[in-house]
Amino acid sequence: MDRRLGVCRLEVTGDGAPIREHARPEPSSGDSAAQHWHCHWHCSTTLLVLDDSLKQILRTPGLILWLTGAGVSAESGIPTFRGKEGYWQVGSRHYQPEEMATWAAFQEMPDEVWAWYLYRRSVCRGAEPNVAHRALAKAEERGGDLFLLVTQNVDGLHLRAGNTLDRTYQIHGNIDFMRCSRECLPAPVPLPEGIDLVWNKGRPVTERELQALKCPSCGTMTRPHVLWFDESYDEANFRFQSAIDAAQQASLVVVVGTSGGTSLPMHLGTIAAQRGVPMVVINPEPNPFSALVTRSGNGAFLSGAAGQWLPEIVDALPSA
Ligand code: NAD
After folding, report:
1. Contact in structure between 25 and 37 (CB atoms under 8 Å)
2. Is there an atom of ligand 1 within 6 Å of 80 CB?
3. Residue 22 is among the residues annotated as catalytic for this protein
4. Do both 152 and 136 map to the same domain?
5. The whole model's pTM is what?
6. Which structural domain, as residue segments, surrounds residue 213?
7. Ligand 1: does its nearest atom lie under 6 Å from the Cβ of 237?
């Protein structure tokens, strides 16, 4: 099946010529932003056909702000925080990510928190960018300075897919970096060599590794360079003001794979909605961002996976 043309083909043996083909139907007036067209003849794949109103929104001139969350990396095999794979066991207790990803937990059990992050880093390093990441890299290639990506993901997959650090604000940090826990370093530094990239769930940190994780400047224990649930955003580490400036300048906001459970992303969405900027929301489930679209009537909620929608969306964008 050729997804770009929206045509299903059944090849026959011998000369390989298609004996039957049928094109996708044109969306009819009054349809919602896109049609899910099921080919019941030859294949079970769902084609997504963007309709004219959505194409019109995507042609809005000016800066496009792309806001991504853990759902974009779900198709690379990295669990979201809402999945049940996220828990961590310490002794006989199971901790939820929202408990482990805190300054309070780090103060109480730094070795355990580091072990959890080194395991999560191993999951991220073992994953590959998926079609959604690649589509966003293409969007930057085409959009240039009219492209800006704000991501909550700490997995680095957007950068590995080809997005540039200049136009990618990692507002929750990057799991491959660490900072002095007393903030004596001017900037985060990469995790030292000698820390295993493959880390089985439950494996503790050794004394040698704990030594390697000390601050190279003052000798205090470092911490993962991520924003924890009991901490605040700032510009130096997390591009807080720059992200707000982008929401104030954007002409279109596309929100992909986030539950809306964290404050800055919701703030960015609210700024855009208050400015009357159209918003496109991609998620398998309705969420607070899709509620903003429903309330404003300005934009579209596209129900489904990031990888299902983003290639079509990016193909429909105008070139810079
Ligand atoms: P979340 O776990 O709260 O929500 C994930 C969202 O993705 C949900 O709304 C879910 O419906 C949606 N989703 C699931 N599969 C999807 C798919 N295939 N396509 C599109 N959407 C899909 O994640 P969040 O909103 O990003 O925020 C929670 C925090 O979790 C953030 O601080 C983030 O840094 C952290 N986190 C990051 C990663 C990562 O870096 N990959 C992974 C887990 C958690």
Report:
1. yes
2. yes
3. no
4. yes
5. 0.86
6. 79-126+177-226
7. no
Domain assignment present for residue 1? The answer is no
* pLDDT tens for each residue of the chain, 320 residues long: 333 233 332 222 233 333 333 344 444 444 344 444 433 333 333 446 688 889 999 999 999 999 999 999 999 999 888 766 666 777 778 888 889 999 999 999 999 999 999 999 999 999 999 999 999 999 999 999 999 999 999 999 999 999 999 999 999 999 999 999 999 999 999 999 989 999 999 899 999 999 999 999 999 999 999 999 999 999 999 999 999 999 999 999 999 999 998 999 999 999 999 999 999 999 999 999 999 999 999 999 999 999 999 999 999 998 76
Determine if ligand 1 sits within 6 Å of the CB of residue 261.
yes
Q: Which atom of ligand 1 is nearest to the CA of 260?
A: 25
Q: Residue 16 C-alpha to ligand 1 middle, in angstroms?
A: 43
The stretches of the chain forming alpha helices (DSSP H) are: 52-58, 71-74, 97-100, 103-108, 110-126, 131-143, 157-161, 207-212, 235-238, 240-249, 263-274, 288-296, 306-315
List the one residue out of 303, 301, 299, 289 whose CA is nearest residue 64. Answer: 299
Q: Read off the CATH number of the domain in which 118 is found.
A: 3.30.1600.10
**How much distance in Å is there from the Cα of 112 to the middle of ligand 1?**
23
Note whether 241 and 254 are same-domain residues: yes
What's the half-sphere exposure (Cβ side, CA atoms, 13 Å) at 280? 26
